[in-house]
């Protein structure tokens, strides 16, 4: 397993946990072929989506898988943004969440959570663009919608994020909020 990130702090943190982490920029990174390549909440940020996916496919062993965990920012509605705002507000008030220099801090600083969401996520590749590029490879594509908002929370107490994820999943199942998470498996 090899992890790459442009952020030197993230690379050092991964190395401290025993991960073979390297400072690199995708799609310039190449170090042999892999059984699987995972884009974890990052593909929406790459400069050239088509080149990044094509490079990933070339870096796979025959029969390998490209895994994408991302989100559909455009699908957010007022109820979903308000739910995240409410959860974050409650966790901050309880001292279970620190919201410095993050999207959650921006969200909490605004009276209209959906507008804060739309403003902060305007300059990323859409879910539709990611799906279109993945499908264009001609490889089998599986996809699912799932919870995602819990990932914005960096709680101070153990287990809080998982409890929020379960609550988010229940609300999605009930139709009360929109599932913003997207998972794609290519190959």
What does this 3D model show about the protein?
The protein is of the alpha/beta class and 187 residues long. It has a single domain, classed as Rossmann fold (3-Layer(aba) Sandwich). It is 39% helix and 20% strand. It has helices spanning 8-16, 49-58, 78-93, 103-108, 113-120, 127-135, 160-174; strands at 3-5, 21-23, 34-40, 60-71, 141-146, 181-186. Strands 3-4-6-5 form a 4-stranded mixed sheet. The protein has a two-stranded parallel sheet with strand order 1-2. Strand 1, helix 1 and strand 2 form a beta-alpha-beta unit. The longest helix is centred in the middle third of the chain and has 16 residues, at 78-93. It is globular.
Please describe the structure with a list of short key phrases separated by commas or semicolons.
187 residues; alpha/beta; Rossmann fold; 4-stranded mixed beta sheet; two-stranded parallel ribbon; 7 helices; globular
């Amino acid at each position: 397993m090899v992890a790459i990130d442009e952020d030197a702090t993230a690379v050092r943190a991964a190395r401290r946990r025993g991960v073979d982490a390297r400072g690199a920029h995708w799609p310039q990174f190449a170090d042999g072929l892999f059984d699987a390549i995972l884009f974890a909440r990052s593909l929406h940020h790459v400069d050239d989506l088509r080149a990044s996916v094509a490079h990933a496919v070339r870096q796979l062993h025959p029969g390998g898988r490209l895994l994408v965990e991302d989100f559909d920012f455009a699908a957010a509605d007022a109820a979903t943004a308000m739910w995240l705002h409410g959860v974050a507000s409650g966790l901050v008030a309880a001292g279970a969440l620190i919201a410095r220099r993050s999207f959650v801090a921006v969200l909490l600083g605004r009276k209209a959570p959906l507008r804060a969401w739309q403003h902060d996520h305007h300059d990323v590749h859409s879910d539709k663009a990611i799906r279109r590029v993945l499908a264009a490879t001609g490889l089998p594509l599986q996809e699912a919608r799932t919870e995602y908002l819990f990932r914005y929370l960096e709680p101070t107490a153990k287990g809080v994020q998982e409890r929020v994820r379960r609550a988010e999943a229940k609300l999605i199942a009930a139709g009360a909020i929109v599932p913003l998470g997207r998972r794609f498996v290519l190959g």
